[in-house]
Amino acid sequence: MFRIGHGFDMHKFGSAKPLILAGINIPYSHGLNAHSDGDVIIHALCDALLGAAALGDIGQHFSDKDPRWQNANSQLFLEHTHTLLQQQGYRIANLDVTVLAEAPRLAPHVPAMRQRLADILALALTQVSIKATTTEGLGAIGHKQALACYAVVLLLSANE
Ligand code: MG
Questions:
Q1: How many Cβ atoms from other residues are within 10 Å of residue 131's Cβ?
Q2: DSSP H helical segments within the chain, as ranges?
Q3: Closest to 73 measured CA to CA, from 136, 18, 124, 126
Q4: 113 C-alpha to center of ligand 1: Å?
Q5: What is the dihedral of CA 102, 47, 69, 35, to 10 degrees?
């Protein structure tokens, strides 16, 4: 009846695209290199949700070779993933996201990001957690070259 899922994603800064995280436009000098809009939070979350249901991964469902997803709004990926879960009789108990970023500072944007994810997935705010941390200046993230995200989810199934 319970299914746990974990997801991870990381993208490199450098793109002229806007920085979009959890569907929210974050003012910053750089966007993330990606075939889609580079929304690492939504990508990690999709992988966690798909993983919990053993439905593969985001690359299988939304290939980065597919021209349909060029510069795609990643919210579409999350909506589609949510529909797949509902078709399988799953609902989301809660989700917890940890974003790793040296810059920009994300804390001021967390309330809007939580609300956006709750809206897309038809959840209460209390079911959606987003935390941000730095890596103390270490590694690619610490050098502001990249941004990464971990996500875990718990699903409830009516079928088991
Ligand atoms: Mg990605």
A1: 13
A2: 40-52, 58-61, 75-87, 110-121, 139-142
A3: 18
A4: 17
A5: 30
pLDDT at residue 43 is higher than 90 = yes
Give the Å distance between the CA of 117 and the centre of ligand 1. Answer: 17
- In this structure, the strands spanning 2-15 and 146-157 are antiparallel
Q: How far apart are the first and last CA of the chain?
A: 5
Would the pTM count as exceeding 0.90?
yes
The pLDDT, as a whole number, for residue 15 is 76
Q: Which alpha helices (H) appear in 28-159, and where do they start and end?
A: 40-52, 58-61, 75-87, 110-121, 139-142
What count of residues does the chain have? 160
Q: What is the DSSP letter of 86?
A: H
